[in-house]
Every structure is written in C-alpha cells, then in structure tokens.
Design goal:
The protein is an all-alpha fold. It has one domain: MetI-like (MetI-like fold), CATH 1.10.3720.10. Helices cover about 75% and strands about 0% of the residues. It starts with a helix and ends in a 7-residue tail after the last helix. About 35% of the residues are buried.
Length: about 290
C-alpha cells in the first residue's frame, strides 16, 4: 500500500513539473492529435491517399480541400495524414533499433573500460567523424532507395552518438555505493548492468529517445527529399516536399504544408524532450 501511494505521489509530482513547461504541454497535445489522426487515417479518408482527379489538380486551399490538391489532383491533407503514419513509424523504429544497439555498446564500454572501451569507442569515433546525415545518405544510396534501406541507414547513423552518451552515464554510475553493494552480494556483471545501472540512467535515455525520434523524422524527410527514401506514390512528408518543389513559384502551398508539419512535429518532440528532462531531473524531486 505504501509503495502504491509513493508511486502515485511521484507520478503526481512528475505531471505537475511537466505541466509547468507550456511548450512541452503544447508538444504533447500536438503529437497526440497527430498520432490519433494517423491511426484514424482509414476512417478519415477510406478511399486512400492516392485517389487522383485531374480535373481538380492544383486546386488551392478551399473548404473541400483544406490544404489544396497536388499535380495529380490528390488531396494534400489526406496524403499528409497518411504520411504521418510513415514518418512517425520511421522515426520511432530507427530510434528504437539505434538506441538498443547503442545502449548495449555503451554499457559494455563504460562498465568494463580498458581494451573493450578503447576498441568500441574508436570504432564509434570513426563513424562520428562522418556527419550522420552524410553517412545515412551514403548507406541509403549503396543499398538502394526504399523504406527498408532508409531505416537501416538511419538506425546505423544513430548509434555512435548515443553509445558515447550511454558510456559516459555508465562510467558515472559504476563506482557508486549501490554498485559496490551489488558486487559484494555476488551479482553478475550482466545483472549489475541491466538490473541496477540501466534503471538509474533510464530517465536520461527517455529524453534521448524523444530527441532521437525528432532527428529520425527529419533525416528520413531529407533522404526522401533526395529520392533515397520513400518512393512514389507513398506520401512521406519529405517525398511530398520533393514533389512540390517543381511548382513552388506558382503553387507554394505544395511545399508549405509538408514543410510546416515536419517543423511542428520535430519542434513538438524536442519540447517534449525538454519537458521530460526537467520533470525527471533528480534535483527537482523535492519541488
């Protein structure tokens, strides 16, 4: 009973601290609406995202088509709603894969140190010497365009930076008293790493995850814009930007709409990350 009350009290304090950051609340509300729209895409537009009507192509924003239509007469709002499924899924999947691998590498390097640390971190340094988006472009080009190759490229590009951060957090934890107590109780290395250290750095990992999803969406849009990601007629936001750039002078809404949704989504995720960082900061627990 006491544990339940303590957990409820901690949760209440967390939400109270999070709600103080109005931008973080805005980001959470916006993302919730976006996710709900993406999940309800089949209900909102049961005919799908590739319905073409040449009679209404290049129709500007109007009550029937709130964000206008493109060069094939397809409704931009419908395509953006379906595109949310793709962009959000890519951002989440690439971040999950990259974070899982990075956590394992960082935990091993930080916990054991020595040769294991030197070898793993030098490999990560090689990857870090190449800008992550450039590395993703090269890998996506080598393996060909498409969602699968883009996910692989973005996941690999996300590993080096996160692994170094995890390593630093593990090093700061491994010599603390609770780890010494765990060692004296003859707990194995894996148990110490994943049963004791990992929960204590999980709050920082949650913040890194939200930031990673934002970066994943932005990089996925970049690859699709360059023709190395989602392929037509898939309504990925970056692909929509690429398709609309040829008509930007006469029909600027074709690039403004997908550009704004990318900006707002990335901004919202970054604000959520800031809010989580402040709410999970141990120094604020008493406030």
């Amino acid at each position: 009973m006491k544990k339940r009350k303590a957990a409820k009290s901690d949760l209440t304090r967390f939400f109270r601290r999070y709600s103080r950051n109005r931008l973080a609340v805005f980001g959470l509300v916006f993302l919730a609406i976006l996710v709900l729209a993406a999940l309800s895409a089949n209900i909102i537009a049961p005919d799908g995202y590739d319905v073409q009507n040449y009679k209404i192509k290049f129709t500007g924003p109007c009550p029937e088509h709130l964000l206008g239509t493109d060069y094939l007469g397809r409704d931009n709002l419908v395509r953006m709603i379906y595109g949310a499924r793709i962009s959000l899924s890519i951002g989440v999947v690439t971040t999950v894969i990259g974070t899982l691998i990075a956590v394992f590498i960082g935990m091993i390097a930080g916990f054991y140190g020595g040769k294991a640390d030197n070898i793993l971190m030098r490999i990560m340094d090689i990857f870090l010497s190449i800008p992550s988006i450039l590395l993703s472009i090269v890998l996506a080009a080598v393996f060909g365009g498409g969602i699968a190759s883009m996910i692989f490229a973005l996941s690999l590009g996300a590993i080096p930076g996160v692994s170094r951060l995890v390593r630093a957090m593990v090093i700061s934890e491994r010599d603390k008293e609770y780890i010494e107590v765990a060692r004296t109780s003859r707990a194995g290395d894996l148990r110490i790493m994943f049963r004791y250290i990992l929960p204590n750095i999980s709050s920082s990992l949650i913040v890194l995850f939200t930031m990673g999803v934002a970066g994943g969406i932005l990089n996925a849009s970049t690859l699709s814009f360059l023709g190395l990601g989602a392929q037509a007629p898939m309504p990925e936001w970056g692909k929509m930007l690429s398709e609309g750039r040829s008509y930007i002078r006469d029909y600027p809404y074709l690039v403004l709409a997908p550009g704004m949704i990318i900006m707002l989504t990335v901004f919202s995720l970054n604000m959520i990350g800031d809010g989580l960082r402040d709410a999970l900061d141990p120094r604020l627990k008493g406030k």
